[in-house]
Amino acid sequence: MDTIVQILKQNNLSVTEGRRKILSLFLNSNGALAHADIEKNTDKHFDRVTVYRTLQSFVDKGIIHTIPTSDNSIKYALCKDDCSEGHHHDEHIHLLCTHCGNTFCLDDVVTPAIRLPKGYTINQVEVVVKGVCKTCNLQ
Questions:
Q1: Distance between CA 48 and CA 129 in Å, rounded?
Q2: 127-131 and 33-34 beta bridge pairing
Q3: If DSSP codes are grouped into helix, strand and coil, which group holds residue 1?
Q4: What is the CA 66 to chain-centroid distance, rounded?
Q5: Which of this chain's residues are annotated to bind Zn(2+) (predicted)?
Q6: Which fold has domain 3-137?
Q7: Rounded CA gap, 6 and 1, in Å?
Q8: Which of 34, 55, 62, 106 could form a disulfide with 83 if both were Cys (CB 3.0 to 4.6 A apart)?
Q9: pLDDT at residue 83, rounded to an integer
Q10: Tens of pLDDT, residues 87-139
Q11: Annotated binding residue at 100?
Q12: pLDDT at 81 > cutoff 80
């Protein structure tokens, strides 16, 4: 069984052509993908709503996570193995390259511990750093 089918079945998702194609894009990507990137790289018969619903189901199942951007849009990246349905553990830094525009998960850099005042609860921590990626730095 290939990796894509295995991931979908482990997460109790039916194996459809749309899910296979979109998950394949994530598995073959070096960075995060925007909704527009996914629409551009899938067959024309996947409409905007189908792409959105697929992305949302992947987020809900812990397959991908969201990354905020400076223009208030969202990018998506693959989760690591410890994420599951309703429980994302992607507490790492994201780098937005100001040269190429790509967003990268920096898995080796964890977010600092945040202590909130009594009575407050953290649901999710998102840290986006702007800078230049290693590929652009070599140019």
A1: 29
A2: unpaired
A3: coil
A4: 5
A5: 97, 100, 133, 136
A6: Arc Repressor Mutant, subunit A (1.10.10)
A7: 6
A8: 62
A9: 64
A10: 555 667 888 888 988 888 787 877 778 889 999 987 777 788 889 998 898 87
A11: yes
A12: no
Residue 11 amino acid letter: N
Q: Sign of dihedral through CA atoms 74, 25, 91, 52?
A: positive
Alpha-carbon distance of 122 to 26, in angstroms, equals 28
83 is in an annotated binding site: no
- Give residue-wise pLDDT tens across range 21-73: 999 999 998 778 988 888 888 766 678 888 899 999 999 888 998 887 777 78
Please tell me what DSSP assigns to residue 42.
S
Q: Against a cut of 0.85, is the pTM above it?
A: no
State the Cα–Cα distance between residues 55 and 92, nearest whole angstrom: 20
Q: Is 136 annotated as a binding residue?
A: yes
79 is in an annotated binding site: no
Q: Binding site annotation covers 90?
A: yes
* Residue 9, both tokens: 């079945």
Is 97 annotated for ligand binding?
A: yes
Ramachandran angles phi, psi of 74, nearest 5°:
-130, 140
User: Residue 63 gets which letter from DSSP?
Assistant: S
Q: What is the DSSP letter of 82?
A: T
Q: Which residues contact 79 (CB under 8 A, 6 or more apart)?
A: 62, 63, 64, 65, 88, 89, 90
